[in-house]
Amino acid sequence: MDWKKNRLLVGVGVLVVLLGITIWAFRARNAEPEDGAGEQDGASLPDLDKDEIDELVITRPENPPVRLAKREGKWFVVEPVEAAADETVVNAALDKLDELEVIRVASSNSENHERLEVDDEHGIRVVVRAGGQDLASLIIGKSTGGNTMVRRVGEDQVMSVRGSLTYAFNKELKDWRDRRILDEPPEDIIEMSFRDEHGAWRFVRNAEDAWVQAEGETPIERFAATKIQGIASTLARLRAVNFAASDVTVEAAGLGETAAVATLVIRPHREAPAAAGEEGEGEEGEGEEGEGETPAPAGENRTIVLRVGGSPGEGEAERYLQREGDATIYVVARYGAEKILVNVESFQTPPPPAPGEEPEEPPDMPAMPPGAGGGGQIPPELMRQIQQQLQQQGGGQ
After folding, report:
1. How far apart are CA 127 and CA 124, in angstroms?
2. 104-153 pLDDT tens trace
């Protein structure tokens, strides 16, 4: 082969080889131990038991610390605000601490801390306590190759820990808080009434468990029981997307006398009837109240009052909301607020088209809140909520 006639092919070949060597070197730099560090090489992290941990302090760069504490078996945010914590989110973080496994030493040189994001400017500091004693003080850094860089506070050594830890701790304050406003079975809502500037309406479940207008109400033309059921389903699982700033008052949020109000009556939860052969049935396969019957639930009906006020920003994409008896001022997505900001059309089927007219196109769907379905592009807030629900279902994996 005359290399002079094939200089272009030779040059391309050399470039391919050089590119391959460069890629290999780059991967080796990120995958292999640095500055003489080896496999484990005496590296270790505390053996933490999630059941013993009763306090966490998480500090993200340029954010105030978030302190979580366990009280009588339940987790709370205690700094910078006092509020109930999201148990699912906290348990996901505890699981990661319980499962800490060092794969290798990634670096023993402090010069690499910034690149591995375990320095004070980039890392997430996590203090783990039990009984008032510090069990661990860690800085969680960069996740790469399915593992996470972790450094003990005050030490230079950086360890590569199995799995991704960053997502479990890199959270805003609102993500640590319990955003449930209501968490009721929709079928247990037996009465709903609404009052706002447009009027007042009241609906009840009849003997067949179907939604109807309450006795004495002005009949609604084209009344749609399915619309009432849809409102009940949304309000039963209502979630906040955020919380009002600490300096927002009830009056400033528009939650005073001018607020729209929804009142829900909740019956005691009814357990499903036991199947044949289950405990509690007689020899003939019937319970005390007869086969297939659901015993009347014990307890009394509960009343929940929700108030919707103004918007926390420009436009009306979100609204302030407060539950009577709870000082917390929530921020809810428009989709949830619209189930309280109603008018008569909220309870009607669309009018039939006039002769010769085309049926009206259905209106555009409003912005969907966390936990609600819908087409189109999924908002980031909804995606984060879906991920948290999947973590809960999957045991925080």
Report:
1. 10
2. 999 999 999 999 999 999 999 999 999 999 999 999 999 988 899 999 99
C-alpha dihedral, 328 to 334 to 340 to 341, nearest 10°: 120
CA dihedral 295, 298, 303, 304 (to 10 degrees): -80
- CB-side neighbour CA atoms (13 Å) of 142: 16
For the chain, the domains span: 55-176, 186-271+297-352
Among candidate residues 161, 163, 29, the one with its CA nearest the CA of residue 105: 161
Interatomic CA distance for residues 209 and 203, integer angstroms: 12
Residue identified by tokens 């900001």 is 341
Greatest alpha-carbon pair distance for the chain in Å reads: 102
How far is 121 from 114, CA to CA, in rounded Å? 8
Q: Is the peptide bond before 64 cis (omega within 30 degrees of 0)?
A: no
Burial class (CB within 10 angstroms; exposed 0-12, middle 13-18, buried 19+) of 355: exposed
Distances (CA, A) of 268 to 73, 208, 265, 299: 25, 18, 10, 6
Amino acid at 297: P
Per-residue tokens: 366: 């409003």
186-271+297-352 in CATH: which number? 2.60.40
Q: Which residues contact 1 (CB under 8 A, 6 or more apart)?
A: none
Q: How far is CA 8 from CA 3, 11, 13, in A?
A: 9, 5, 9
Chain segment 87-101, per-residue pLDDT in tens: 999 999 999 999 999
Distance CA 263, CA 195 (A): 9
Instruction: List all residues 6 or more positions away from 78 whose beta carbon is below 8 Å from its beta carbon.
Output: 67, 68, 69
What tokens appear for 261 in the block? 């109000």
Neighbours of 76 (CB within 10 A): 19
- Residue 139 CB partners (closer than 8 Å, separation 6+): 118, 119, 120, 123, 124, 125, 126, 150, 151, 152, 153
Do residues 372 and 335 touch, judged by C-beta distance below 8 A? yes
